[in-house]
Amino acid sequence: MNRAARRRLQKMRVFTLRVDIDWFVTKRVVRSVLDSMLRTEVSVFAPGELIKAALNSDGEIVLNKGSKSVVARDWLPLVCQSVRTAGIPGDTPPEESTLGWYSSNLVRALLGGVYGEAEPLGPAALTGEIILDPRLLQIDDEDRVRCVVAHEIVHAIHYLAMAVPAYRHWNKFRRSFENGTNANDLLCSWLYNRGAFVDDYGRPNERAEIEPFWPSDLVDRWWKALRGSG
After folding, report:
1. Nearest Cα residue to 188 out of 111, 105, 121, 131
2. Looking at the whole model, is its pTM more than 0.85?
3. 3-class state of residue 144 by DSSP
4. Is-contact 112 122, C-beta < 8 A?
5. For residue 210, what are the domain limits?
6. Nearest Cα residue to 218 out of 42, 85, 81, 34
7. Residue 137 contacts residue 19 (beta carbons within 8 Å)
């Protein structure tokens, strides 16, 4: 597909988020998490600028994001088009005990792979989904399910930092990956680092990642249901 065709496809695509769950109760629970999201803004990268990184005192990779920001709730469909239960061939949870996980082709679509080994597919090819383990259908406490869903939504939100500028300004976004830069490695390392903070299960890092995006009373209730009183 040439560049002109890809740009036309990008303009034609409409990103939407579907809750593809047959069981009505779980579908309602998932919708309640989406509907209760706050209009929290998140920073996104400034397309076209050289991407640099540094480590802060907590060992977190900090990138030179620009002053641009977007409302995470409004842009979520760009990085997550569906929430569904596992069951499709190839669904493999990261760990056996995992109740949900986020899956996206963003690295392949926007970066051409971890090392930029292939031509990027472009933002029109971007896909992402939250996959829930069927065991969640058997959990009586709906707030436990909500906490799992919120956790996975936060994983998706982190991908907005790259997806939004790529979608808005694809050519400018790709300028950050010209020969002589290590932008691919920096962005993949940053994604891994952010994911590790969210997956610090039951500890302050996980809760701190969830708290900005929902009312505090809901987060407190969901957290206690899934993680206890910590």
Report:
1. 111
2. yes
3. helix
4. no
5. 3-227
6. 34
7. no
Judge whether 70 and 160 are in contact, CB under 8 Å: yes
Task: Return the higher-pLDDT residue of 140 and 105.
Answer: 105
Q: Give the pair of three-digit tokens for residue 52.
A: 């640099």
CA–CA dist 117, 45 (Å, integer): 22
The mean pLDDT of 191-195, rounded to a whole number, is 90
Q: Which residue is it, tokens 């920073």?
A: 43
Helices (H), 53-114: 72-79, 106
Determine the pLDDT at residue 70: 94
pLDDT tens digit sequence for 30-67: 999 999 999 999 988 887 777 766 666 666 666 666 66
- Spatial neighbors of 158 by CB under 8 A, at least 6 apart, are 191, 194, 195, 198
Amino acid symbol at 114:
V
Could you give the number of structural domains in the chain?
1
User: Rounded to whole angstroms, how far apart are CA atoms 105 and 70?
Assistant: 21
